[in-house]
Amino acid sequence: MSATVMNALFILSSFTVLWAAALAHKHEHFLQCLSIHSRDISKLIYTPINSSYSSLLTSYALNPRVSIPATPNPHVIIKPSHLSHIQAAVVCSKSHGFQIRTRSGGHDAEGLSYISHHLPFIIVDLKNLNSITVNIENNTAWVQSGATIGEVYYEIAKKSRTLAFPAGVCPTVGFGGHLSGGGYGWLMRKYGLAADNVVDAYLVDAYGKVLDREAMGEDLFWAIRGGGGGSFGIVVGWKVKLVAVPAIVTTCQLEKNLDGYAKKLVYQWQYVANKMDENLLLGVNLTGGNPTQGAKPNHKATFFSLFLGNSHDLIATMNTTFPQLGLTNNDCQQTSWIQSTLLAAGFTSRDPLEFLLTKTSFNTVAYKIKSDYVNKPISKHAFKGIWDRLKSPKMESAQLLLFPYGGRMSKIPTWETPFSHRAEFMYKISYVVGWAEQSREASERNLNWVREFYEYMSPFVSNSPRAAYVNYRDLDIGMNNEYGSTSYEEARVWGEMYFGDNFKRLVRVKNKVDPLNFFRHEQSVPPLALS
């Protein structure tokens, strides 16, 4: 070995040792800072030397595609149980050069709440901040961000069977993350999104201050209701208004094999679904794929619905608006609203409500989600390409979820919250591909399939910009650069896909409340000052 090479290796080795020593020094000072700012925080801090660190890190890392062994781990995980712990985490991270990732449920599709390739970083895990206080006298509830949707539904049902909240169907999703991106569900045609029903909130800002709606001002309050998580602060609690539901609701599910008639029904569905009574949501789940283990491919269309009323009135409505579907009482169940949330989550109406309290989703399937919005009916010719791709042998399991708009979603102005996808759209499409085989080949095959599908759909969906749903984060459409200095022009490529013209206002709010871009991630809103 030459002297030059040996010298180079010596320099590299020396640099590595010095860097490690500097990081250890930084780590020690960071922990001291936390203790100074919050004396009781020590038992809530987890570092890689703690025996429970790994299980805590992975327990809510719900997408194996992004949480792989080679993924950089957080320097520290903090599980705050009080606002002061979050304040300490913000102040000390800012003064010691750590990034913060905030996790409430771990369902974010790209893992941005618990993964960062920009070291060093910490995780603030909100699971201990999960209190729920329901007030049926004024039809409101205070919900901390670490609660799950299922826990919120359960607590509402303990007080009333005719009050509800318009959020999603997966009970293990964290409430904070769900609301930060809008939060759609089966009640949205009647009451809008979860974020549309927020009346107050409190958060910790980039300076460690605790602000409620009055203190934060209407601009920041507007931004956190659908402007995406991780950009403006850590929202710790939300005051939401509860909505009225009848004592009896009706849920239906009708499966049809993807033969010629079922395909015709799906094509016809797009002409009527957004025009139906706002008390009715009728969606479609198209499934395809070629499962491993020798299972038979299952290509079908499942029509699912929730109607705020009894089955007699629902059948009468369907016979008027969409008789071709042939919905009958045998396809439907009359339940209470809270029981309908069990059905939507894959349980039965006879299962105990305590099933909604499940905290962990034991997901072993890697997945990728992409999204689109449709503002004019897709042609039969285009649907032929959809059917062909759902029968492709290149992926293991795939779903296309078609979720209708209209109703209340068409009445809320596009500028009322950052979530701008309103009256101009007929329905939303979610493309979901999953695979159990954890290999590079399986990952590349399935990712290539969904990306090609997305490219194929480009002429048939919204454009200029092509709209996307921020709670289905998709790093394929663009990212901030590594140093957090992305310009407005660079960020608007993906920002306008998520927020439309509202992205401009989000940038202005960011510039006002966090001009140094402390709260940031791969798709956070950048401040205007950096452009």
UniProtKB/TrEMBL annotation:
Is the keyword Glycoprotein assigned to this protein? Answer: yes
Name of encoding gene: LOC111434010
Q: Which PROSITE patterns does the entry mention? A: FAD_PCMH
Its domain of life reads Eukaryota
The family note in this entry says: Belongs to the oxygen-dependent FAD-linked oxidoreductase family.
Occurrences of domain FAD-binding PCMH-type (ranges)? 70-245
Specify the protein name. Berberine bridge enzyme-like 18
Q: Which GO terms describe its molecular function?
A: FAD binding; oxidoreductase activity
User: Lineage of the source organism?
Assistant: Eukaryota, Viridiplantae, Streptophyta, Embryophyta, Tracheophyta
Q: Which UniProt keywords apply?
A: FAD, Flavoprotein, Glycoprotein, Signal
Entries under SUPFAM superfamilies matching the protein:
FAD-binding/transporter-associated domain-like
Pfam families named among the record's database cross-references: BBE, FAD_binding_4
* Organism, scientific name: Cucurbita moschata (Winter crookneck squash)
Q: Which residues form the signal peptide?
A: 1-24
Q: Which cofactor does it need?
A: FAD
